[in-house]
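INTERNAL TRANSFER SHEET
From: sequence group
To: structure group
Subject: Pyruvate kinase

Please process the attached sequence and return the structure record in the designated field. Keep the field labels unchanged so the import script can parse them.
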Amino acid sequence: MISLDEVDGPKLRIGNVAEGSELKPGDILKFTNDKVDGNKEVVYMTYTQFAQDVEVGERILIDEAA
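Return from structure group:
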């Protein structure tokens, strides 16, 4: 499991992501509510309001949960 952390905001959880799925600056990552095996292009997220709660250009930190 990987967590999405906003410095001052909530921790959100996404589904499993395939080993070696490394993102580089400028890559586009799609978040979906469909249960899919994650990779460097798409990841599963249970939070259904995510698209409404973020804005274009907003920074999102993706890190491994400890």
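Handover comment: The mean pLDDT is 82. The two ends are 9 Å apart (CA to CA).
Transfer complete.
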